[in-house]
Specification:
- This protein is an alpha+beta fold and 458 residues long.
- The protein contains 9 helices and 21 strands.
- 21% of the residues lie in helices and 33% in strands.
- It is globular and about 80 Å long.
Length: 458
């Protein structure tokens, strides 16, 4: 893997027309024959794992790689770190690369965790003295206790990840490459790793591979979609993950872009029954409503020409938010009880209908969402061809951090695990949150009560 001075911009990695071919022999003996004789076409077949892949990473970028199993993600990463030779093309890096790929990669199973820290430190170009200076921090980050002095062959997969990540976090890398290995760690350690990656982004470059599109949109500025060894799409993380979602559905069903239709005015009497809420009062509500801390949210109207896909058996005509009296809202405040309404026409008779929504931030990270599946599991909703339907889901809107958000809406049929997507709008509603009182997190929940009292005998 060539490396050198980065002339010009702040480019730290350049992948140029990389192709990786594998040869599969019909019989093991043919592999031996090929060393001594010119191979015959019948002896082997060729498989292209990567096909002319090209892209560059700039300093400070965080790029996600997505794609189905077998799409070439791991092969690409191995060519970048140099553990796999390319068949053609080249990879140029302009800095130190640290990678967390396959579990146990770079570890000697007979060595202790301590010995492997020194081994890996040397591989990444650190002197023994430098590893000495960082060892306590590495041990603390890994947090595997006395196992640091045990052979790593006795480690669980989670311990492998802990130690491997702790090492790459302390080698002064310019580029971090993280594969799906993080998925086997426990939740607390995964959160620690994500916090580290967020801080690393300030000065370093990250190449992040995950099947979790939410993690990609949350962490990454940009995403690359690989499909059958080809670079399918390279762009902003939100757009690429949405296109990938459409592709996944297209593999299982016949989907198409939704056509624009005229919106019919459905009478108010056609609404489904209004949701009933139990009384619940936020003890801060009056103060918030009468101060500059009120969580004001402006709603933009549904755009029927927005980005959508589906089988075409359902056409979503409108998505809106109403109050409990049925009034369609252009403005709402956090903490209020609302009805999220999805109005649609069925172009076919369908059984076991699922209507739902996802609330996302501007990067496409899902904050919350729901559908009617569990509510109607024992009495599924069936719809008739040619009729217009109105689904309403009553929720207490959480308090939301200032910024721009979207509500995606969809109508499918089947089950949670196996369903056909008939109509999905990526950004059905756009919400602009113009003020908030948030201190922590992205969303806040209405507070029903808060007491502080001394305990008897304490």
């Amino acid at each position: 893997m060539p490396s050198g001075e980065n002339s010009g911009s702040k480019r730290v990695l350049h992948v140029n027309n990389v192709t990786k071919n594998y040869i599969s022999y019909a019989k093991p003996i043919y592999r031996l024959y090929s060393f001594f004789f010119k191979p015959k076409p019948s002896w082997h077949s060729e498989f292209q794992a990567l096909k002319n892949i090209s892209f560059s990473l700039q300093k400070g970028e965080t790029v996600g790689i997505i794609g189905r199993n077998g799409s070439g993600k791991s092969t690409l990463l191995q060519t970048i770190v140099g553990t796999l030779a390319t068949s053609s093309g080249e990879v140029q890096s302009f800095g130190r690369i640290a990678a967390l790929l396959e579990l146990g990669a770079g570890f000697n199973p007979e060595f202790t965790g301590r010995e492997n820290v020194y081994l890996n430190g040397t591989i990444y170009g650190l002197s023994r003295e430098q590893v000495d200076q960082r060892f306590d921090e590495i041990e603390k980050f890994a947090d595997i206790g006395s196992f640091i002095n045990q052979p790593v062959k006795t480690y669980s997969s989670g311990m492998f990840v802990r130690l491997a990540f702790a090492v790459i976090a302390h080698v002064d890398a310019d580029i971090l490459i993280i594969d799906e290995a993080l998925a086997v760690g426990d939740a607390l350690f995964a959160q620690k790793c994500m916090r580290f990656l967020e801080s690393f982004k300030e000065n370093g470059t990250i190449l992040f591979v995950s099947h979790d599109s939410g993690a990609v949109t949350s962490l990454c500025d940009r995403a690359i979609w690989l499909d059958a060894g080809e670079l399918k799409l390279d762009g902003d993380a939100k757009s690429v993950t949405e296109a990938y979602l459409e592709h996944l559905y297209s593999q299982e069903q016949d989907i198409s872009k939704q056509t624009v239709v005229e919106v019919e005015d459905v009478a108010k009497e056609a609404f489904s029954e209004t949701a009933v809420f139990e009384e619940f009062y936020d003890v801060r509500a009056e103060y918030l409503k009468n101060s500059n801390l009120r969580n004001d949210i402006k709603l933009q109207p549904f755009d029927i020409q927005g980005s959508s896909f589906g089988s075409g058996k359902v056409e979503i005509r409108d998505v809106c938010i109403r109050d409990l009296t049925g009034r369609k809202l252009a403005y709402v405040t956090g903490g209020e009880k609302i009805l999220i309404e999805i109005r649609f026409v069925s172009n076919a008779s369908l059984d076991s209908l699922i209507v739902g929504f996802l609330f996302k931030n501007r990067l496409g990270q899902v904050l919350f969402g729901d559908n009617n599946y569990l509510i109607h599991k024992d009495s599924p909703i069936n719809v008739e061809k040619g009729k217009t339907y109105c689904a309403q889901m009553g929720v207490t809107l959480p308090y939301i951090l200032s910024g721009e958000y979207v509500i995606s809406a969809g109508v499918a049929s089947g089950t949670q695990e196996q369903h056909v997507q008939h109509c999905w709008y990526h950004d059905a509603l756009v919400l602009n949150v113009v003020s908030d009182h948030m201190v922590h997190g992205l969303i806040g929940l209405p507070l029903g009560s808060c007491t502080v009292k001394a305990l008897d005998g304490a």
